[in-house]
């Protein structure tokens, strides 16, 4: 044990600013194999009831009123509080090499921040190395060795040749059931429509979910040139160079190409009403399109990009950009009516020094904002406290829908016997405060600086361990597990029948009698 402690200490010193260290070590190793959560309101996506929750060895064993336990069980009183599945963040970038630098949060600091905010699992995007999926995968397996909570992987596809589709098959065997295609970032991650079509077909044959970053990269490139020619080099140029119409166009294009091959589609970080409208239209026509808003798009507006202080403005630079006032409200409404299905963060943090890479040219500001720690609080405050969604809907959009889409439900995303013990105790009558001075990300800034609101994650249990209690983290690098995610999620049910119907509808080839002329 002493040996393990010194190892953790060594690791953490190299990973963490000293001020945060005390939060990671208390008298015990934090493992509490038997826990009883007493008297809370257990909220699942479909139902809520007052019940006790009994956990043993990382698994929920029972959910019912009045569970009696022996003395060796840690009892947590949840009277007057909500007991909910830990959040699952479908969209993060930890230890990502991007735009000439690497995100400041790695798999330890990013996950520790997540746990302090009630998120107990995330799905991170593996970026191929020179187009190689297997090399990218190996690199991320290494990065993820620091994990202190459960995680899964999506895989980006950045080129196409004979090897890539074969590697996609191997990735699915390794438990990756989703592939992301970037229609933006010309010259680095961006792919062509031809590649997207190949990718969509391959995803469909594998039962994997195709995900798209929807912005027209060629037009963005043109917009950037225009801004520079106009002498606009600051962060506002970022928003001006890639307006909502370019997000709407790419969203519509991806949706139509997915319809053309009858493949389900997931649009990541929906930031504008333009993109949301395209998703809604496709859904009304019966197409399986999932839209993922991110917290920044729901609660922020682009006025901050015009701040006279460069760092204050640059910290909000992400793609697609945070939009003008009005878009956020529209996205909230779409989330409340089910057009948008689940909330991610796109947590991709860079500190002030890194953001300063673009001091003379907004095109060089590393794109990305924080959110992994703030998501659960901000979604509650913005959506539930305002009366737009119920507590059960909150569980659905922050946890259950993600578990279902990535095919790990009910292991994740539910408080029920047999599920993993990833649980939060949430006090709806308490308040949260956000500041870079108190957050757990390694970034020196926070795009939600100074915000407070109603509701507070008081306890986080991950894999049956109490990892966040009394404002203290108790996390161990290496304790998080890789979650393998099988293909053929619910969007694939019935897809063969639709394909058969399509083939019959062709009434072709026509059997013609060949006559000699
Ligand atoms: O600005 C962003 N979104 N950075 C992360 C990369 C991506 O496009 O998701
Ligand atoms: Zn993206
Ligand atoms: Zn992203």
UniProtKB/TrEMBL annotation:
Highest taxon of the lineage: Eukaryota
Q: What is this protein called?
A: Uncharacterized protein
Origin species:
Cichorium intybus (Chicory)
């Amino acid at each position: 044990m002493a040996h393990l402690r010194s190892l953790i200490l060594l690791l953490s010193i190299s990973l963490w600013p000293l001020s945060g260290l005390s939060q990671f070590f208390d008298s015990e190793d934090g493992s509490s194999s038997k826990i009883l959560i007493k008297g809370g309101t257990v909220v699942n996506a479909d139902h809520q009831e007052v019940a006790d929750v009994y956990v043993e060895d990382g698994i929920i064993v029972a959910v019912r009123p009045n569970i009696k336990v022996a003395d060796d069980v840690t009892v947590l009183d949840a009277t007057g509080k909500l007991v909910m599945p830990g959040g699952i963040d479908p969209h993060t970038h930890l230890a990502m090499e991007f735009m000439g630098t690497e995100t400041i949060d790695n798999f330890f600091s990013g996950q520790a921040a997540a746990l302090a905010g009630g998120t107990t699992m995330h799905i991170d995007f593996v970026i191929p190395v020179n187009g190689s999926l297997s090399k990218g995968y190996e690199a991320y397996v290494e990065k993820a060795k620091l994990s202190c909570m459960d995680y899964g992987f999506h895989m980006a596809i950045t080129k196409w040749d004979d090897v890539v589709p074969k590697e996609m098959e191997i990735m699915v065997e390794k438990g990756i059931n989703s592939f992301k295609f970037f229609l933006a970032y010309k010259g680095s991650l961006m792919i062509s429509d031809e590649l997207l079509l190949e990718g969509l077909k391959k995803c469909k044959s594998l039962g994997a979910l195709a995900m798209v970053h929807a912005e027209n990269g060629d037009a963005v490139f043109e917009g950037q040139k225009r801004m520079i020619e106009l002498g606009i080099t600051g962060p506002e140029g970022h928003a001006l160079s890639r307006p909502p119409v370019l997000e709407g166009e790419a969203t519509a294009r991806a949706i139509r190409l997915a319809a053309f091959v009858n493949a389900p589609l997931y649009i990541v970080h929906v930031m504008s009403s333009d993109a949301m409208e395209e998703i809604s239209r496709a859904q009304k026509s019966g197409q399986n399109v999932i839209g993922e808003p991110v917290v920044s798009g729901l609660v922020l507006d682009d006025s901050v990009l015009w701040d006279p202080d460069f760092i204050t403005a640059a910290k909000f630079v992400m793609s697609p950009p945070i939009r003008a006032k009005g878009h956020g409200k529209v996205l909230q409404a779409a989330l409340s009516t089910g057009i948008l299905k689940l909330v991610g963060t796109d947590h991709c943090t860079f500190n002030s020094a890194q953001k300063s890479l673009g001091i003379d040219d907004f095109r060089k500001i590393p794109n990305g904002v924080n959110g992994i720690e703030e998501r659960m609080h901000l979604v509650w405050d913005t959506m539930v406290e305002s009366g737009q969604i119920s507590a059960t809907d909150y569980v659905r959009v922050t946890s259950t829908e993600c578990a279902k889409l990535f095919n790990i439900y009910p292991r994740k995303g539910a408080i029920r016997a047999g599920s993993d013990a990833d649980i939060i105790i949430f006090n709806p009558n308490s308040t949260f405060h956000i500041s870079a001075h108190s957050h757990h990300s390694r970034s020196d800034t926070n795009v939600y600086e100074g915000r407070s609101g109603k509701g507070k994650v008081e306890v986080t249990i991950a894999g049956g361990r109490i990892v966040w209690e009394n404002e203290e983290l108790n996390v161990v690098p290496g304790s998080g597990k890789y979650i393998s995610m099988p293909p053929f999620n619910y969007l694939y049910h019935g897809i063969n029948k639709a394909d058969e119907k399509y083939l019959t509808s062709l009434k072709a080839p026509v059997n013609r009698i060949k006559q000699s002329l």
